[in-house]
Specification:
Layout: H1 2-48, H2 51-64, H3 69-81, H4 85-98, H5 103-115, H6 119-130, H7 138-152, H8 155-168, H9 173-186, H10 189-202, H11 207-219, H12 223-236, H13 241-254
């Protein structure tokens, strides 16, 4: 009789523990789902440029389930877009703690250090991205390296990394734009013009690209082409600071026409 009573007590305890565990699991899954809904809404706000709305939803998601590497990555992106790089770095590192192989977070972490002009740290993390054979878009990291080495004054390494990016993706405009700046710094103006002309063909509505091309034409003493490119900037981006600079450039080259 006593053994039977002991068994019933033990069985009751086990049943209660299972019920509590099941309840906790259910609550945890519910919190995860609610957090995911908030995160996705925050991502939609972020794409629209509504930073306040995005932050509100991301913080709501973080309270419910902070261990989502995608959420931590999203928070990093938001702070980086607001140029609050130290906060972005904290969240990118959290994302990598939760998912060490998440290449996008590693590349964005490097970008954040680049935003702080901490070129050595940026290079360190860009190289980690490149060494990750599973990362699907290494041309982003090579372009970041090209940019970092440019600002460190190492033009040969800058060119080499931009070239590697373009070898992987020949129409990657950011790399075309970057390598053209490196060529200008090297005094290799025809190559700079060639890369910028290609970039403009790829993105003809980009006023900044037309401005860079106009400047390269001007430095190459191709004043008529420079004038037309400056006029294109004014057409594409009227009543902006860039248009004002383009107007000054157009007036300068017009003297030589």
């Amino acid at each position: 009789m006593i053994m039977k009573q002991n068994f019933l007590v033990w069985f009751g305890c086990v049943t209660l523990m299972v019920a509590v565990a099941a309840c906790a699991t259910t609550n945890n899954e519910k919190a995860k789902k609610e957090a995911e809904v908030a995160r996705r809404l925050g991502e939609a706000y972020l794409q629209q440029g509504n930073f306040a709305g995005a932050l509100k939803e991301f913080k709501k998601a973080e309270k419910k389930y902070p261990d989502d590497h995608l959420l931590q990555y999203d928070l990093g992106l938001l702070y980086a877009l607001k140029e609050r790089y130290d906060e972005a770095i904290v969240h990118y590192k959290k994302a990598l703690e939760l998912s060490p192989t998440y290449g996008a977070a590693m590349n964005s972490l490097a970008n954040a250090y680049a935003g702080k002009k901490d070129w050595d740290q940026a290079i360190f993390y860009y190289r980690k991205v490149i060494n990750d054979i599973l990362y699907a878009t290494p041309h982003f990291a090579y372009t970041g390296l090209g940019n970092a080495y440019f600002y460190k004054g190492d033009l040969q390494r800058s060119e080499k990394n931009y070239q590697q990016a373009l070898k992987i993706k020949p129409d990657f405009v950011r790399a075309l734009q970057g390598i053209s700046e490196t060529y200008i710094a090297m005094g290799r103006l025809p190559e700079a013009v060639e890369k910028l002309e290609k970039a403009v063909r790829l993105v003809p509505e980009s006023a900044p690209l037309h401005f860079q091309l106009a400047r390269a034409y001007q430095m190459s003493l191709e004043f008529e082409k420079a004038y037309r490119s400056y006029q294109k900037v004014i057409e594409l981006a009227p009543e902006t600071g860039l248009a004002d600079q383009a107007e000054e450039g157009a007036m300068e080259v017009k003297k030589y026409l």
